[in-house]
Amino acid sequence: MKLIKGIHHVSSLTADARSNYAFYTDVLGMRLVKKTVNQDDPGMYHLFYADRYGSPGTDFTFFEIPMAGRTYRGSQSISSTGLRVKSDEAIYFWKERLEKQQVSVGEPVIRAGRLTLALEDHEGQRIRLFSDRHGAATPAGTAWEHPDIPEDVAIVGLGPSELTVRSLAKTENVLINVLSFIKTGGEQTEEGPMTVYSTASGGNGAEVHVIQSSESKERPGRGSVHHLALRVEDEEELKEWKQAIDDAGYDNSGIVERYYFTSLYFRDSNGILFELATDGPGFDMDEPIEQLGQKLALPPFLEERREEIEQKLKPIKAD
Q: Tens digits of per-residue pLDDT, 213-248?
């Protein structure tokens, strides 16, 4: 069985799709590549921000839950999402830009051997920018145009996801013994001891960073992460991974058709929700590349409910 290829996407929660769209496109300069709905609850938006082509490994997605309360941070959580930039110089560009935009941002620090910059969006979503200077083994995506963000400093994909757990052994068992990651590093951080796990070529697009903490369990809300999705090539590989997850004794969703990709979901014993997702067919199934994200896209099984669904959704700027 082939290795997991890296991170596929990260899905989080927002209470306001319009302000979310403004932050991730206007401030961070990402492209809205798919404006669709939660297929399990079509009354809510599901927004996908990514690189120019909506490439696997670049998607930061959000479910809109207007009544979502605040997040009470803690363990048993996906505590931070990594985003990649091409160089150390880009980190300093973002430090200056985010301060001017009055975004909550820290100081550049070395993390797992790379220069990084921690920030939070307007809802407290925790993000860390990672320089590719020493972490580009897994190819990044292609920058999207933005009038105020030069291409050489733009965000080009997802970096390492950070998990915070009480029992390192439980999550390590899944990463190493089920998903075939390897342990490639570790260090002490302000948040606690951190262990680095890598798959495939490793580097920024193929790492999970796990922090061990005795904090109480996180109570999720707006600004929290719902799940971490990992990349597999196609549905045949996904079926092989399902067998491996079954054999390891983890309950799972079975194969789920998401139209733009095919998925499987399961939780580790710390409650972390993982998804395995195929690289294709991709977001140009129902929109040409140059028009991605410009209209509400619905998978075929929801198309007959379009009028009903559109009446429940508040228009956002991209409409």
A: 999 999 999 999 999 999 999 999 999 999 999 999
pLDDT, tens digit (0-9, with 9 covering 90-100), for 136-183: 999 999 999 999 999 999 999 999 999 999 999 999 999 999 999 999
Cα–Cα distance for residue pair 50/43, rounded to 1 Å = 23
What are the strands, taking DSSP E only, across the chain? 7-14, 31-38, 41-50, 59-64, 77-85, 104-105, 109-111, 114-120, 126-131, 158-165, 182-189, 192-198, 207-212, 225-232, 256-257, 262-267, 273-278
Residue 289 carries which side chain, given as an amino acid letter? I
The structure tokens listed for 272 are 């972390």
Residue 120 to residue 224: CA distance in whole angstroms: 11
Going by their DSSP bridges, the two strands 126-131 and 77-85 should be labelled as parallel
- The CATH number of the structural domain formed by 7-312 is 3.10.180.10
What does the pLDDT read at residue 317?
Answer: 67
What distances in angstroms separate CA 96 from CA 90, 119, 123, 158, 267, one per listed residue?
10, 12, 20, 21, 38
Question: How many other CB atoms are found less than 10 A from the CB of residue 158?
Answer: 31
Question: Measuring CA to CA, which residue among 200, 199, 166 is closest to residue 268?
Answer: 166
Taking the C-alpha atoms of residue 301 and residue 162, their distance in angstroms, rounded to an integer, is 35
* Centroid of chain to Cα 72: 20
CA angle 105, 110, 114 (to 5 degrees): 105
The per-type count for the chain, helices as H runs and strands as E runs, is 6, 17
Query: Domain map of the chain by residue range?
Result: 7-312
Determine contact, residues 74/166, Cβ cutoff 8 Å: no
